[in-house]
Amino acid sequence: MAARAVTLHLPDLLFEKIERRAQEAHRSIEAELLEVVSTAVPAAEELSPVLGAEVSALRFLDDTALWQAARTRLPQPESERMEELHRTDRRTGLSEVEAQELTDLERQYERVLLVRSHAARLLAQRGHDTRSLISGE
Questions:
Q1: Tens digit of pLDDT for each residue in 80-95?
Q2: What whole-number distance in Å separates Cα of residue 110 and Cα of residue 91?
Q3: Less Cβ crowding at N or C end of the chain, within 10 Å?
Q4: Helix, strand or coil for residue 46?
């Protein structure tokens, strides 16, 4: 498989989280980033019909609604629970119920990322400066 180099500027806090995950998994930062990206960006044919329709519908939103979609985050309780389950999985493993809960939370997170990235792409195509989305402003 061919590979392309990419330069990515990460906020310090995000870099530190990736660095910690890489250390815990005994991987390089590059390997950890590749894992994160490959799991967060499903191939188009892997999208459910509902999610595919949701992403396609973004192009009909006005700019204000697109900015809102591009700034959407997984709610804090769900985000914290997902991190807790990841830590538990690394330490002791998960029960079947916990594993299903983690799968459900990861799907929610992937949906948020997909919607955010498509909304940001549409905003950029419409001529907006989307750098604030990257820096978290």
A1: 999 999 999 999 999 9
A2: 24
A3: N
A4: helix
Place of tokens 């195509």: 125
- Residue 102 contacts residue 82 (beta carbons within 8 Å): yes
- In this structure, the number of other CB atoms found within 10 A of the CB of residue 51 comes to 16
CA–CA distances in Å: residue 15 to residues 47, 103, 126? 28, 24, 29
Q: Virtual CA dihedral for 89, 112, 28, 100, nearest 10 degrees?
A: 20
Amino acid occupying residue 129? D
pLDDT in tens, 66-119: 999 999 999 999 999 999 999 999 999 999 999 999 999 999 998 999 999 999
Q: How far is it, in rounded angstroms, from Cα 48 to Cα 33?
A: 25
